[in-house]
Every structure is written in C-alpha cells, then in structure tokens.
Recover the amino acids of this structure.
C-alpha cells in the first residue's frame, strides 16, 4: 500500500514536470476561483492529449517523442486570406498550410488525416473590421 502511494506520487511529480517543460504551462495568479479552475482544466486536458499522443506513438512510430511530433506539426499553420470585393466587403478564406513531405509521412504513420479546408466567409457591407476579427 505504501509503495503504491509512493509510485503515484512520483507519477504526479512527473506530470507536473511535463506540464512545465514539455507543454510550457506555468502557474499563474487568478483573481477568480473559476478562472483558476479553468486553468487547471486546460492544463489537465493538455496533459491528457500529450499522454494519448505518447501511447499512439508507441504503437505507430516508437522512435518519436510527443515533443518532436508537436514541433513537426507546428509547421502546419492556419491563415486567413482576405480578398476585397467591389461592394466594400471582404471575402475571407481560412486555410491551413500544406504540410511538408516529412510531416505528411508523420501524419500517415499516425493514421491521421487533416480536415477539409474551412469554408469561406464574407463580411457585412460597409462594416468596419476590428483587430480581433482580422486575426482570425
């Protein structure tokens, strides 16, 4: 019983090291309890995703680490292409960049498919755009 608790403690400590180093999550001060709870939830979900990726790598690509995979996948970025129309609106084409050959191979190894490109959007006529809207 004591040994089991000790092993659990070392696993929990490893989780916190992983959150701080590999995921870059640091403790922050929140004024409201619900914000602190939300921060903990997001950190826990990030950790769950990392563990899921780690187990998937053991099966499909045993030589890779979650950090290496995330670095490769970071090359796929989401961008918005803004095209002005003649009636003062904007056609917005959200697109993700095409992965490089090595990243495509990684996606195939992990049996993952990128989703379809998102549909275009168009702004209302004469509407002024804010900074939040232009960042996508």
């Amino acid at each position: 019983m004591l040994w089991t608790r000790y092993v659990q403690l070392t696993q929990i400590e490893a989780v916190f090291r992983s959150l701080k180093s590999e995921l870059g999550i640091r403790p922050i001060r929140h004024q409201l309890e619900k914000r602190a709870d939300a921060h903990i939830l997001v950190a826990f979900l990030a950790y769950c995703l990392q563990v899921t990726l780690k187990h998937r790598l053991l099966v499909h690509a045993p030589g890779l680490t979650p950090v290496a995979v995330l670095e490769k996948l970071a090359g796929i970025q989401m961008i918005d292409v803004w095209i002005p129309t003649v009636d003062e609106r904007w056609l917005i084409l959200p697109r993700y960049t095409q992965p490089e050959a090595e990243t495509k191979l990684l996606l195939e190894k992990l049996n993952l498919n990128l989703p379809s490109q998102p549909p275009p959007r168009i702004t209302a006529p004469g509407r002024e755009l804010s900074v939040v809207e232009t960042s996508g």
